[in-house]
Design brief:
This protein is an all-beta fold and 120 residues long. It is 0% helix and 58% strand.
């Protein structure tokens, strides 16, 4: 079973920074794409940033110049560095990963979410 655990959320003033981390643990063969999503109250969950196994990261337009996704494959960890935070970035942030088990099955797993609140 694969589990994702996020950390790093919190309360920050506008213009501040936070760094989210998501660690994948359990019994699996490999991790493929990793991504961060967010869900604000009354809004649909949206894709914030992706870190594909191959290729360049991609970002939601509204965060492109402020957020940076990175990953440490040796630690099965993905990070989201968020700079110049704005009140509209307030949301629960979720980590998502795709991977393969030792039996060859694909998995698509979500973390429990971490709250990010940006005060104006």
């Amino acid at each position: 079973q694969v589990q994702l655990v996020e950390s790093g959320g919190g309360l920050v003033e506008a213009g501040g920074s936070l760094r989210l981390a998501c660690v994948a643990s359990g019994y699996f063969f490999s991790i493929h794409d990793m991504a961060w999503y967010r869900e604000a109250p009354g809004k649909q969950r949206e894709l914030v940033a992706t870190s594909p196994t191959y290729g360049k990261p991609d970002y939601l337009d509204s965060v492109r110049d402020r957020f940076t996704i990175s990953r440490d494959n040796a630690k099965n960890t993905v990070y989201l560095q968020m700079n110049n935070l704005k009140p509209e970035d307030t949301a629960v942030y979720y980590c998502n990963t795709l991977g393969t088990t030792y039996s060859g099955h694909q998995f698509d797993v979500w973390g429990q979410g971490t709250q990010v609140t940006v005060s104006s």
